[in-house]
Amino acid sequence: MAVTLPLALDVEHMGFRYPGNSEVSFSNLNLKITKGERFGLFGPNGAGKTTLISLMTGLLTADEGHIKLLGHEVGKQNSEVNKLFGFVPQDFSFYQELSPVENLEFFGAWSGLDKPTIKQRTDELLTILGLDDVRNKQVERFSGGMKRRVNLAIGVIHKPQVIFLDEPTVGVDVQTRHAIIDYLMELNKSGTTLVYTSHQLSEAEGLCEQVALIDGGKIIAQDNLDKLLKDHKQESLETMFLNLTGKDIRN
Length: 251
Ligand SMILES: Nc1ncnc2c1ncn2[C@@H]1O[C@H](COP(=O)(O)OP(=O)(O)OP(=O)(O)O)[C@@H](O)[C@H]1O
Prior knowledge:
alpha/beta, 251 residues, ATP hydrolysis activity, 36% helix, Rossmann fold, ATP-binding, binds adenosine-5'-triphosphate, nucleotide-binding, ABC transporter ATP-binding protein
């Protein structure tokens, strides 16, 4: 008898189109992400990765079908669902004029945390992410790598069960990349589901166990990474990616 694993995300027959933009749309898209998985969503520029993450987090609303996060329908202004996930967007989402501590105070309170919990999580995260020395300095003057780490801390302050990460290591040095990936692996070991996009495919190979390739709003391959590589007779995610999506440059 097949065992049904609990789902973190269940996208069923989902349809979406940006008003006035006919280039990329989703039609009858189905995608299941199991709880506790490290899931990677990959595709060329403009494939629809950020759009799909925006739909899965309720920032955009699907025109058709359903998107369920841990069994709850997203996009219904449901503040309880919002507490279940964290979002680390590609574009920085913090207040540049505030310090890391002030940003975490603000976003922690916004997530419904009380003051002692915010303080405890702030101390913990700033230490783990190597930002303790600059905890009270204005974020505006930080390097790109430091800003990425602040962005990550904000997305995880409320210990979400599912974390969406849209290119969380873009523009960072090797040390910061390792710090971020190691921390994500730690979170996953304690049961957190990761939904990650990146163009750093060698990094992704180390992080993701399940992957989906998306192009033109369609999922063109999805499975366990090792199985996909074996099935497509490819040695790396990058060669498989080129093989399946072609070499044409996208806009
Ligand atoms: N607000 C918007 N209104 C209309 N079209 C949009 C909007 N945002 C994105 N698009 C279009 O939707 C398509 C998919 O964009 P999306 O940002 O989801 O792709 P992506 O896979 O994340 O790309 P990248 O790898 O470059 O970040 C693109 O054609 C883009 O121009």
